[in-house]
Every structure is written in structure tokens, then in C-alpha cells.
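User: Sequence recovery, please. Input:
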């Protein structure tokens, strides 16, 4: 019987899902719009407050992992179990999912199996409506190409350090070493963005 992604050892996970950085693909925007439409056809419209293309694939000209990050902000009254089951019918979270409670965050992947990456890979971040830094960070990179290029160079440096054994990709067996290495930079730029675009995504009272 074929393993599930959750059953892979750290070594197997790294071999199956290498970190890949590619030049910006102009098709990313269309891939996002297609998946956005599919999501909105699948879950109750009253549950959806806002849906957004986030991450590096949303920024033209920025090198990125060839995957689409989507932020789905939902109403606080929606039934999360039913929502997850509905999203599974279109491939989200069937193999890769994780959840945190404070604040609530649900991450559902599509296009990742023990056979590796599909032609299109999506990461769906499900949260309650909020003033999320990812939206500000994206906008700041889009408005400041020099910062976007700086961020791209940082990602390449981190990947090189991982490949050379200077940074652990899977500390404690968790595949978050790459993200942890970017954390301080992302926090600093996000703070600048929240100053520049104060309240842009803050929920209205």
C-alpha cells in the first residue's frame, strides 16, 4: 500500500518535495482565478468573507516556489468540519493539512502526494477575517520592486544554505526551516507595510 504524505520520513519528504525556486510564471494569476472560482462554487457563499492571492506567486517578477498560495477568510459562524469536507471534494487537504488554534489557522494543500508535486500546486490558508500581514507584505513587494528583488535574493541564499547544510530544512522533523529562515525579514517588511498601508485590511467594526 502506498504511503500517505504524513507517513513519509523527513528524508523521504525532502526527496519527494524539494524546494524549487523559479522565475515568475505569468500564468500564476490565471491559475489563481480558476481555483478561486472552483472554491467559491464548492463552499457556501455565506461562509466566505474574502479570498486573496498571496505569497510570492502573486508578485510579478519575483522568483517563487511554483505553487499558488490562497488566503480564504471565513465567517466566524461557519462550520469548519463541513467546510473541510467540502474542500476535500476538490482536492484540498486530502494528503497534506495542518491546524493551529490560537489564532485559528488551517492549511490545506492540493497537488502534493507521495508521487511528488502535481503540475499545479495550491496552498489554501483558511482563517477567520483579520488584519493579516500576508496581504500587506504582498502589497508592499508589488509596490517596491527593489524590496521584492532583495527578498528574492534572500530566498536564494537560504536555499543555498540549506543545500550546503548550513540551515536545517526540517528542524525537529517539521518542514519549516526555510520559512523560519525568512521569518525576521518578512516580519520587518510586514511592519513597514502596515505603517504605509495602515488599516487597509482591518475588518470594519
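Assistant: Recovered sequence (205 residues):
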Amino acid at each position: 500500500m502506498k504511503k500517505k504524505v504524513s507517513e513519509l520520513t523527513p528524508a523521504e519528504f525532502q526527496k519527494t518535495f524539494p524546494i524549487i525556486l523559479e522565475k515568475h510564471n505569468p500564468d500564476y494569476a490565471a491559475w489563481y482565478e480558476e481555483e478561486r472560482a472552483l472554491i467559491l462554487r464548492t463552499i457556501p457563499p455565506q461562509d466566505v468573507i474574502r479570498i486573496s492571492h498571496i505569497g510570492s506567486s502573486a508578485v510579478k517578477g519575483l522568483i517563487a516556489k511554483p505553487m499558488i498560495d490562497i488566503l480564504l477568510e471565513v465567517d466566524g459562524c461557519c462550520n469548519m468540519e463541513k467546510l473541510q469536507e467540502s474542500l476535500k471534494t476538490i482536492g484540498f487537504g486530502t494528503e497534506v493539512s495542518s491546524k493551529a488554534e490560537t489564532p485559528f489557522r488551517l492549511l490545506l494543500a492540493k497537488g502534493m502526494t507521495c508521487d511528488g508535486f502535481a503540475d499545479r500546486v495550491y496552498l489554501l490558508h483558511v482563517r477567520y477575517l483579520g488584519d493579516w500581514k500576508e496581504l500587506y507584505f504582498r502589497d508592499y513587494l508589488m509596490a517596491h520592486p527593489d524590496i521584492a528583488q532583495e527578498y528574492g535574493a534572500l530566498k536564494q541564499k537560504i536555499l543555498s544554505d540549506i543545500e550546503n547544510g548550513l540551515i536545517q530544512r526540517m528542524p525537529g522533523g517539521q518542514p519549516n526551516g526555510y520559512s523560519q529562515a525568512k521569518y525576521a525579514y518578512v516580519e520587518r517588511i510586514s511592519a513597514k507595510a502596515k505603517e504605509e498601508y495602515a488599516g487597509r485590511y482591518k475588518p470594519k467594526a
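The first strand starts at residue 48 and ends at 54.
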